[in-house]
Every structure is written in C-alpha cells, then in structure tokens.
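User: Assemble these into one structure.

Assistant: Restating your components, then the assembled model:
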Amino acid sequence: MSKSAATRARPLSPHLFIYKPIPTMVMSIVHRITGVGLYFGVLLVAAWLLAAATSQEWFDSVSAVYGSWFGRLVLFGYTWVLIHHMLGGIRHLVMDTGNALEKHTSTRLAIMLPFASIALTLVLWVVGYMARGA
Amino acid sequence: MTDFRTPLSRVRGLGAAREGTGHFWYQRLTAVSNLVLILFFVGLIVALSDASFAEVRATLANPMVALALALAFISVCYHMKLGMQIVIEDYIHDELAKLISLMLNIFYTFIVGAIAIFALLKIAFGG
C-alpha cells in the first residue's frame, strides 16, 4: 500500500561533497583510504614471506621485482601509507579518550599529520639506505 | 527454564546487533597491538633490506622473530577484517552485494593470515 510512497525518490539532505573540505574531514577520509590501501598492500608482505619459504629462485624473483625502481617506488608509497595510518591511528586513540577534540587543536593535529608521516617515512628510508651502505 | 532477567538487562550493553561495543573495542585493541608489532616488523625489514636468501631465512627462523611476526599477522588481519567490514557496511547498500562482500572480506583476511603464518612456520621448522 505504502510501497510506492516509500520507493519514490525522496528529497535527501545535502551530503559531504557540498561542504568545503576542512583538515579534520580530509584526514578522516585519508585514514580510511590508507587503511584500504594497506588491506591490499599486505599481499606484498605475504608474497615476500611465501617466496622466502619456497625457494631461492622464488625469493630472487620477488627480490628483483621489489628491488626495481618501480618496486622501490611502490614500497616507498606503501611505507608512507603505513606510517600515515599509524600516526592517524594514534591520533584517533587520543581522541577516543576525549582529548584533543577542541576545534583549533584537532585542526592543527590534522594539518600536522601529513607532514609528520612524510618526514618519518623519509627518515626511515634514509636510515634503511644507511644500514645498507654500512 | 524461566529467565528472571528483565528485557532491559538482557539487551543492556549488547545493542541490536548482539555485539555491543565489541567491534569498536577490538578495533582499538588490535590498533594498539599493531603499533608494537609493526614497529618491530618495520625495524626488521630495514635490517634485512640488503640481506641474502640465507640471511633472511636464518633471521625468520629465529623463534622470537617468527613468533613476533606470526602475532603481527594475527593482529593485523583481525584489524583489517574489522576495518573493511565498516567500509563495506558504510558504502554497499544492496543486501546481497553486502552479504557477499562481508564474506569475501573474512575469506581474504583469513587467507592472507594463513599464507603468512604457514610461510613463517615452514621457515621456522626448516621445511
């Protein structure tokens, strides 16, 4: 009886896209996107472990792919996504306790997040290359 | 047997999905364990970046390393399962597509975890 009324196109409230993006909003969706990236990127780690468990040939093939310029680029991106999600996660844990929710504090933290994650990723790779050279 | 609890006490803390805050709690719990275990993993990868096949095998065969990595994969895969579940529930509204996606999410996370832990055990036990 009321089915037609229920399925008729209803007016919707404006969705997120009509709002000007603000830092906390952007970092919220970036946290989710990086999470989804890590979800599929973990296959790279599983493949590496499986190759190490299988044979020298498999390990060499995987190492060759990961060691190529494109492989390194993907691994660098993967490291950044991991660090970003990790720092963002720590920020979320802090906010879960009811802290850092004040408007200016939360905005400042959200703005700092990408800078901190890029800096930490660079530090990690520099240390990695230095460990290689040593 | 007669249940003497009031309807309120039966649902208190559990909610309509009968899980209460379980999902929220385990997402945070695994976030904290991920933090510790992944920092270890990242350090290990940096240390192994120039290692040969034999060196990698020897390191992964160390009981403490194998154990930490196995725990890392359990924690990470559970965290992944919970996280992707929320994404699916938020964006997929068709009931059948949602059901299939939720199933695939669980299959995927279990398979990834199984591959990693199998590989670690094989190396650790020298197979």
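The interface with chain A takes residues 28, 31-32, 34-35, 38, 42, 45-47, 49-50, 53, 56-57, 60, 69, 76-77, 80, 83-84, 87, 112, 115-116, 118-120, 122-123, 127 of chain B (CB under 8 Å).
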